[in-house]
TrEMBL record:
The species this protein was found in: Rhodnius prolixus (Triatomid bug)
Keyword Transmembrane helix: no
Protein name (Swiss-Prot/TrEMBL): Aminotran_1_2 domain-containing protein
Ranges where the Aminotransferase class I/classII large domain occurs: 27-142
One record GO biological process: alpha-amino acid metabolic process
Gene3D superfamilies recorded: Aspartate Aminotransferase, domain 1, Type I PLP-dependent aspartate aminotransferase-like (Major domain)
Transmembrane region(s): none
Keyword Cell cycle (UniProt): no
Cofactor: pyridoxal 5'-phosphate
GO molecular function, one term: pyridoxal phosphate binding
Keywords: Aminotransferase, Pyridoxal phosphate, Transferase
InterPro entries for the chain: Aminotransferase_I/II_large (IPR004839), Class-I_PLP-dep_aminotransf (IPR050859), PyrdxlP-dep_Trfase (IPR015424), PyrdxlP-dep_Trfase_major (IPR015421), PyrdxlP-dep_Trfase_small (IPR015422)
Length: 143
């Protein structure tokens, strides 16, 4: 299955890794913060990283304060935090088939009612979603 990108385990596509950038960032972290570079950090992420994210946003015309930025340890943590904040037991969420396993798990932990629609080479089959909207009150869609 050479042309399949598996979403089952949330494994990133390694061709997209910026090894040079990661190497530079690691060396910079070791140089700038040698005692804390590899220690557990704050839940919301490194203050320095959050400040740098805000600076990059400002360059693109988006303003934010570092206190408003949260850096997660990955998509699963981000999904969990979002689902805990917005999902009430019984809320209906629609996912595409197939979908990321961790998204299903976080929705299940939040006690959402999960429905699914097909996907094709263009993504979610929105006509199926439109049909569901005729009969279901849907709180959210995960794609």
């Amino acid at each position: 299955m050479e042309h399949v990108i598996s979403l089952a385990g949330g494994i990133p596509f390694d061709a997209l890794f910026d090894f040079e950038g990661l190497s530079i960032a690691t060396q910079q972290a070791i140089t700038e913060q040698p005692k804390s570079a590899f220690q557990y950090g704050l839940t919301e992420g490194s203050p320095l990283l959050r400040e740098r994210i805000c600076a990059l946003c400002a360059e693109r015309g988006v303003t934010a304060d570092a206190e408003e930025v949260m850096v997660t340890a990955g998509s699963q943590q981000a999904l969990d935090l979002v689902m805990r904040a917005i999902v009430n037991p019984g809320d209906v969420f629609v996912v595409e088939r197939p979908t990321y396993l961790a998204a299903l798990q976080t929705l299940e932990l939040a006690e959402a009612s999960i429905m699914s629609v097909s996907s094709d080479s263009d993504g979610m089959v929105v006509e199926e979603l439109a049909e569901l909207l005729k009969t279901q009150r849907i709180k959210g869609v995960y794609v």
